[in-house]
Amino acid sequence: MRKLVALALVLSTTGCGATIAQQEPGETKVTVRNCGQDVTYDRVPSRVVTNDTGITELMFALGLADRMAGYVVSEGHKAGDVAGSPWKEDFARVPRLAEKINKEVVQGAGADLVFAGWNYGFSESTGFTPDVLKEQGIASYLLTESCRNGVGKQRGIMPPLEALYTDLRNLGAIFRVPDRAEELIAGYRKQVADAEKLLQGKPRPKVFLYDSGLDQPFTSGRNGAPQDVISKAGGDNIFGDLDDSWTAVGWEAVVSRAPDVVLINDYADGDATTPAQKQAFLESHAPLREVPAIRDKRFFVLPYAALVEGPRNPAAIESFARFLARG
Length: 327
Hints:
six-stranded parallel β-sheet; ABC_transptr_periplasmic_BD; Iron complex transport system substrate-binding protein; alpha/beta; Rossmann fold
């Protein structure tokens, strides 16, 4: 009876309809599989610090803004991704803590969990890692898209959408909102399935994801979110053979693979910071002149938060599929 009463109590109800049930003492431990390791959380985190827009939006999509101490995003992402986010109201009411995450920012926020990833905040070169946080008594959760796959620092251990669904289920378990997680996953699966029908039976265009870089382009391999954004929309990622998430390639490889479409990441980095500047550079870069996508001016732009793992991925698939379907 005590258990039934405890389960009936509700601590909070979010704007998205998710609820967090009170747990009996001794029944709060949850173990999830994160980046190949079983990780146990002794209690429901209540002061979470997130890094990057896609990661933060995963919390918001699950209705967990009230469990957050704050988030960290760069000034460029604040002006771009945050301003256009479907969760703009949550971004407004949860504190933005800093432009770059570090141990001092997390400690100052009184964090009991940091949700980030390798190269999404965590890095040995900066000394900010899950092991360092563990020494401070702060738990971590790693974004699955960022999991290292055993080959150097290459990232990605499963197909991108499965990474998204895995994180939603894990977070649903950690924060005791499994029904909300499953509701989101079911909706996303339907949205993706409907988008896939738009180009069914039609030729699949070759797509080059251009993130940034003038001397050397930065793009995405088969383990990054763009892989499924492109493939589920009806195209083929020209670098889908690379066993990595985000990586640098050479312009010669782009030319030889002759993409039909360029998908531009609206991400301010390097000399060409806006989508218009990136397109102008690609059109002016002599080696690319005869590449079909450049010659035919077939460009499509998506925001950064739609191209890293996060709840905007399914909508990105749908919008890109509609673009490709127009021919």
